[in-house]
Amino acid sequence: MNNSVLVVGSVAYDSVKTPSGTRDNALGGSATYFSISASYFKNVSLVAVVGDDFLEKDFALINGKDVDTSDLQRVKGKTFRWQGSYDFGDLNQRETISTDLNVFADFKPILSKTNQNAPYVFLANIDPELQLDVLEQMVIKPKIALLDSMNYWIDNKFEALEKVLRRINILILDVNEIKEFTSKTVIEEATQFIQEHYNVEFIVVKNGEHGSTLWSNGLKFNAPPYKVAEIIDPTGAGDSFAGGFTGYLTKLQKTDLQTLKKAMIYGNTMGSFAVETFSVDKLVKLSISEIENRAKSIMDKSNI
Ligand code: AMP
Known about the structure:
By secondary structure, the chain is an alpha/beta fold. Helix content is 37%, strand content 26%. Strands 1, 4, 5, 6, 9, 10, 11, 12, 13 and 14 form a 10-stranded mixed β-sheet that branches. The chain binds adenosine monophosphate. Adenosine monophosphate binds next to strand 2 and helix 9.
């Protein structure tokens, strides 16, 4: 029986500038961070595309985790590239310098029979038309479908994003993105709007270094952050959060409130590891005991 989490999203080479320095052409991408993070909890199948410049060592790194790459296509051309720079006074703010879709511009995902039957789907940040395409190929309705996106797609593919939103159970967005998507500045109003208009059951709002908040029908749960000694590079924190959150939920195969709250804490835990180094440097070499210890220290601070 297929029991894995299917993820579609970007696999990228990122160039970032933070107060700690710059790193060019480092392994990144929403689906990369998500897959590595979720793999500590659950087996993952990755649907994406890379170019012929994608390095063997990066393939090996992804394959070295519990990530099935049979639907990761490799085609002629350049891998997706993203360049960003963080506000040195406020690391929660960043500017995208460039987005080069490259091989993603003509990407057509083709799901294997096994992946068409995946019970859980995470639609990581990528063109919402690709997210829809993946949903269309599923032969069974996923038990849980989750969605993440970003300002680039809110600006460029709003209507397609709305269509995806109507087909998922859990939305995960950054606080700035949800405000932009709904054109509302008060978070309560923004989340309520999403629930009413798109019938999304749960909404998770990521608040950067301040943790994350779960919203559902008047319910609000704040998951406190783990304060790292130094944030080196915030890139991928959101996707790593989503990997921990989704990995934990799908490992337990439940969406009751207590499980969701714990999943939020595992999300914050995985996000905190991601920011301690550039790229996936730290995320890729964690031990289960490191993850459990950090999650426990957050749980001790929260009212669950
Ligand atoms: P996060 O910091 O969690 O929001 O995610 C950052 C990752 O998203 C980076 O590794 C980028 O490669 C990737 N990314 C940036 N812009 C886009 C985009 N428009 N579509 C898909 N992925 C993107």
